[in-house]
Specification:
- The chain has helices spanning 38-55, 62-77, 110-114, 119-134, 137-148, 191-207, 214-236, 255-263, 277-284, 350-358, 410-426, 432-436, 454-459, 467-474; strands at residues 21-24, 31-34, 87-91, 98-101, 105-109, 159-160, 288-289, 297-299, 302-305, 310-313, 319-322, 327-330, 336-344, 365-371, 374-382, 388-396, 399-407, 428-429, 441-447, 488-492.
- It has a seven-stranded antiparallel sheet. Strands 3-5-4-6 form a four-stranded mixed sheet. Strands 8-9-10-18 form a four-stranded antiparallel sheet.
- A hairpin with a 2-residue loop joins strand 8 (297-299) and strand 9.
- 43% of the residues are buried.
- It has three domains: 21-289, no CATH class; 295-436, Protein Transport Mog1p, Chain A, CATH 3.40.1000; 448-492.
- 34% of the residues lie in helices and 21% in strands.
- It is α+β, with helices and mostly antiparallel strands and 493 residues long.
- Bound molecules: zinc ion.
- The site of zinc ion has 7 residues, from helix 4 and helix 6.
- Keywords: Hydrolase, Metal-binding, Metalloprotease, Protease, Zinc.
Length: 493
């Protein structure tokens, strides 16, 4: 949950005069139908980068920014468009993501860095995104879209490996409860462009002193994320996150991908390759993992927000997820859901707010009270679809917090009434000392001793019920690996 509401990402560009014509594709040397000159491409990239900057903070660790930029620039110099001015940025987001804008703006989240295990894998992510830029994929897609449809969006310019909910509608809480998908999922590039980016990325890896096979490894990392998320989604009773269609098969079984990556072996320099694993682990040691403190932190089933100065507790066995626009908790069986959302400068009392928000009839029951020193209104009613729900509106520090819970059947709702009330009542302001004590989780590197297992590490981990699998994913050993004695591994502290 972010401190204040920001506009959604998809911003319609004002009408742009575009030149129709053909341009030489820098990669293939052949002519592509594009509506955009290189100068236009740069402008679009700059505009889109400004939008990204509004939505995401840069990760505030200059040494790591420097390191990622150095690796990126090394690859870019070996690319088909070495003359472009490339920008490589680590975004302060726990999501696993990497994306490119036209003209050479490339972003990786600290979320994706956490799951990589060598500099070669980082280079593979960056090389793939550079491939999208050099092959002008976004420009080609943009031109196709513009030719078909005058209303182009900046969203159409983004080439992501994995792009969940970038268009998330903020401050529209209750969306999960009402079953809206809400966010506009940006579509990927399709198989042929992805494969081309993999091929180009593999070439840039080889020319820069890395083994092109790192490309296959990284796609495996993303595929494992997807497989793991299918498991977790089942536990949480939600749809799994969808990656691009490119991961339909595991990279190890994808012969076309194997082929294009192996072709890059011809570009390996005489000096050979080095994955620079130790250097990558050194650079990412101490990096924040999961939610940043200014986004609120989840520990077990408790959510705390340092800046906004409050906490609340969900039932201990519920799964809690902190999303940009809301905090969502799911019951162990996935048959009940609670969501906390935030509204700035509410008018009137909590009861007035609830009445307006839920369009309540005069017959609906609203209970006004003071709880933990804060004004609260509690409502029990039904949604427009006829589903029963219970919601609390809490005023704190001139903001309204809405915590609403519902179940998938009236019988289940009756079972959960009490726990929804308990969660509403647990909302309270933090003391100054409590605020100060909130720290983010960090990636730490340790040397595995003999006999150390992920089961043992999971027992002392703050990562919750799925700690063992998270630790395997972080170390590239999902689903069955174990630490190798004497080798460095990552844990979360
Ligand atoms: Zn891609």
């Amino acid at each position: 949950m972010r401190t204040s509401s920001t506009p959604g990402f998809i911003v319609a560009l004002s009408t742009i005069l575009l030149f129709a014509g053909c341009a030489i594709n820098p990669v293939t040397g052949s002519r592509n139908f594009t509506l955009m000159s290189e100068a236009d491409e740069m402008n679009k990239g700059r505009q889109a980068a400004a939008e990204i900057q509004k939505k995401y903070d840069n990760y505030d660790l200059p040494a790591l920014q420097n390191y990622v930029n150095t690796v990126g620039q090394k690859l870019a110099k070996k690319s088909h468009r070495p003359q472009l001015e490339y920008h490589f940025t680590v975004v302060d987001s726990p999501q696993v993501n990497a994306f490119a804008l036209p003209g050479g703006y490339i972003y990786v989240t600290r979320g994706i860095l956490a799951y990589l295990n060598s500099e070669a894998e980082l280079a593979a992510v960056l090389g793939h995104e550079i491939g999208h830029v050099t092959a002008r994929h976004s420009v080609r897609q943009y031109s196709a879209a513009t030719a078909a449809n005058a209303a182009a969006t900046v969203g159409g310019l983004v080439a992501g490996i994995f792009m969940p909910q970038l268009g998330g509608q903020l401050a529209q809480g209750f969306q999960s409860l009402l079953g809206f998908t809400g966010s506009a999922l940006l579509s990927g590039y399709g198989r042929s462009h992805e494969l081309e980016a993999d091929r180009l990325g593999a070439e840039y890896l080889a020319r820069s002193g890395y083994d092109p096979q790192a490309m296959i490894k990284v796609i495996g990392v993303l595929k494992n994320q997807e497989l793991f998320d299918i498991e977790v989604a089942k536990q949480e009773g939600r749809e799994p996150r969808r990656y691009h269609g490119i991961f339909a098969t595991h990279p190890d079984n994808d012969t076309r991908l194997q082929e294009v990556v192996s072709e890059a072996n011809q570009y390996i320099e005489p000096a050979g390759t080095d994955d620079r694993r130790a250097e990558f682990l050194r650079q990412t040691d101490g990096m924040v993992f999961g939610d940043a403190v200014n986004q609120g932190v989840v520990r077990g089933s408790t959510f705390r927000h340092k800046e906004m100065g409050f906490m609340l507790s969900f039932p201990p066995d519920w799964r809690v997820r902190n999303k940009p626009d809301e905090v969502v908790a799911t019951s162990p069986d996935g048959d009940a859901l609670m969501a906390l959302s935030l509204f700035d400068t509410p008018r009137g009392s909590p009861a007035d707010f609830a009445r307006e928000r839920f369009r309540l009839e005069s017959s609906d029951q609203i209970l006004s009270m003071t709880n933990n020193g804060l004004p609260v209104a509690v409502v029990t009613s039904t949604t427009q679809n006829g589903e029963p729900f219970k919601a609390g509106v809490i005023y704190h520090d001139s903001k309204a917090y809405l915590l609403a819970g519902k179940s998938d059947s009236p019988a289940a709702f009756d079972r959960y009434r009490a726990v929804i009330s308990n969660a509403i009542e647990s909302f309270r302001a933090l003391t100054d000392a409590e605020r100060e004590s909130i720290k983010p989780l960090e990636i730490r590197t340790i040397t595995a001793r003999k006999g150390l297992s992920y089961t043992e590490l999971a027992r002392n981990s703050p990562l919750g019920v799925n700690a063992e699998n998270y630790l395997r994913l972080l170390n590239g050993q999902y689903p069955e690996g174990e630490p190798v004695p004497g080798q460095k591994i990552k844990i979360v502290k």
